[in-house]
């Protein structure tokens, strides 16, 4: 009996990951409690490498698609209307949008650790800014929070 218990305990020990990253949820909503429309909450989020972000759309019309990431490999896109977990393994700035609602200013910023590609992210955003017809200035207010 004791031998079995020791074996089971040992297996549970080696099977568990060494560390768990923190988890954060970003809601993708059509209208939030403050009356903001087509918005990610929070629009700016800072996490650390190894943390997980859960994108949670309020309905089938939203998703999250990165358009700036520290590398091509770290880019992401989630399925429409699906709650999706993404664990970030590369530090830097990620700019993302809801694919169908980009022109309505449904955009967000995730900072993972150090903002190593901050200047690049801002310069890539500038030419895209004019395409947004609603909620203008939202991205600028998020970019200001990068630290
Ligand atoms: Cu959307």
Describe the protein:
- The chain has 147 residues and is α/β, with parallel strands linked by helices.
- It has a single domain (20-143), classed as Cupredoxins -  blue copper proteins (Immunoglobulin-like, Sandwich).
- The protein is 19% helix and 30% strand.
- It has three helices and eight strands.
- It has a four-stranded mixed beta sheet with strand order 2-1-4-6, with no helix packed on it. The protein has a four-stranded mixed beta sheet with strand order 3-8-7-5.
- The protein is globular, with a radius of gyration of 18 Å.
- 27% of the residues are buried.
- The model has no long low-confidence stretch (mean pLDDT 92).
- Bound molecules: copper (II) ion.
- Copper (II) ion is lined by residues 28, 38, 61-62, 98, 100-101, 106.
């Amino acid at each position: 009996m004791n031998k079995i218990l020791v074996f089971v305990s040992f297996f549970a020990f080696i099977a568990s990951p060494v560390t768990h990253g923190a988890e954060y949820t970003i809601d993708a909503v059509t209208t939030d409690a403050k009356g903001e429309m087509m918005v990610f909450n929070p629009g700016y989020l800072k996490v650390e490498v190894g943390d997980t972000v859960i994108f949670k759309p309020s309905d089938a019309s939203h998703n999250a698609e990165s358009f700036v990431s520290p590398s091509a490999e770290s880019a992401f896109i989630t399925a429409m209307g699906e709650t999706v977990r993404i664990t970030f393994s590369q530090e830097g700035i990620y700019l993302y949008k809801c694919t169908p609602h980009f022109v309505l200013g449904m955009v967000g910023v995730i900072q993972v650790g150090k903002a190593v590609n901050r200047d690049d992210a801002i310069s890539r955003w500038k030419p895209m800014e004019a395409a947004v017809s609603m909620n203008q200035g939202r991205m600028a207010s998020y970019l200001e929070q990068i630290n």
